[in-house]
């Protein structure tokens, strides 16, 4: 991994898909107009439409013929940046997915990651609207190798560890995480982000939605954490903004040289069958 610049677009959304797309594209254009030429630009999860279940998914899923992909590709070219955008897609087989699209500096769509772990909880079932993906995703960019982890997937440490074992030096987290009951960015979100960075000795690049949509307050808290869990860039609030972050490639090597976690792993012990059961 080399030294890297990232720009993270913390944005609010509405219940109007086309208005959300226009807002996201405008933010990308503003970034390009500023002269910024980062290595990576990230939009939050479901930036085209957040409140799944408030309307039929057929009304908000982006079909293959929609111009959005071409518009994102054009912005990636103009910025000369890798661009990550996550939104609900209509698949060729008629199903829908929570999909992370990755464009390279030339505007080429180099891959798509479909969220594999869907958020089902009392009062909300993501699986009622979209189909889970079947594979994790690693991106070998020209500045680093990074893995993709979408929102709820932060709660499954196996995902980040598998990506790190496969070569990820950075974990990119598009998010649409809500506020906690007291109207603050949840402490558990920051804890999960820091733990993911520390346990995997990797940068974590986190981009969240903000604002209020369909009665739900989004938590903001867009940030970059280094491989020791230190916050090196932070939104510092919940309003719409673009967070600029600098990632030092040497920090990953330094962290991994300081604590040899990967060399000390004992995978043969990480199965239920290897657990000693004591009864008294």
Descriptive overview:
- The chain is an alpha/beta fold.
- The chain has a single domain (about 5-275), classed as Carbon-nitrogen hydrolase (Nitrilase/N-carbamoyl-D-aminoacid amidohydrolase), CATH 3.60.110.10.
- About 20% of the residues lie in helices and about 25% in strands.
- It contains 5 helices and 16 strands.
- The strands form 4 sheets. A 6-stranded mixed beta sheet has the order 5-4-3-2-1-16, covered by helices on one side. Strands 8-9-10-11-14-15 form a 6-stranded mixed beta sheet, covered by helices on one side.
- α1 (about 15-35) packs parallel to α2 (about 70-80).
- The chain is globular, with a radius of gyration of 19 Å.
- The termini are far apart.
- The mean pLDDT is about 95.
């Amino acid at each position: 991994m080399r030294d890297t610049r990232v720009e993270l677009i913390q944005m609010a959304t509405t219940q109007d898909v086309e208005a959300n797309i226009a807002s996201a594209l405008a933010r990308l254009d503003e970034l390009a107009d500023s002269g910024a030429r980062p290595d990576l630009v990230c939009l939050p999860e479901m930036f085209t439409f957040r409140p799944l279940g408030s309307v039929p998914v057929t009304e908000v899923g982006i079909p293959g013929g929609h111009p959005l992909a071409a518009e994102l590709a054009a912005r990636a070219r103009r910025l000369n940046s890798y661009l990550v955008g996550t939104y609900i897609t209509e698949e060729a087989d008629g199903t829908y997915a929570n999909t992370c699209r990755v464009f390279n500096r030339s505007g080429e769509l180099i891959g798509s990651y479909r969220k594999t772990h869907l958020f089902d909880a009392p009062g909300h079932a993501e699986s009622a609207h979209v189909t889970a993906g079947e594979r994790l995703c690693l991106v070998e960019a020209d500045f680093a190798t990074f893995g993709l982890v979408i929102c709820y997937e932060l709660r499954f440490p196996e995902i980040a560890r598998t990506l790190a074992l496969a070569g990820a030096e950075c974990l990119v987290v598009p998010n649409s995480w809500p506020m906690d009951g007291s109207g603050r960015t949840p402490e558990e979100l920051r804890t999960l982000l820091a733990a993911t960075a520390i346990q995997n000795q990797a940068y974590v690049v986190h981009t969240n939605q903000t604002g209020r949509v369909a009665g739900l307050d989004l938590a903001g808290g867009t940030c970059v954490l280094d491989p020791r869990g230190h916050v090196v860039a932070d939104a510092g609030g919940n309003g719409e903004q673009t967070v600029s972050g600098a990632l030092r490639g040497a920090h990953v090597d330094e962290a991994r040289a300081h604590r040899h976690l990967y060399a000390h792993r004992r995978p043969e012990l990480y199965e239920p069958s290897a657990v000693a059961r004591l009864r008294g």
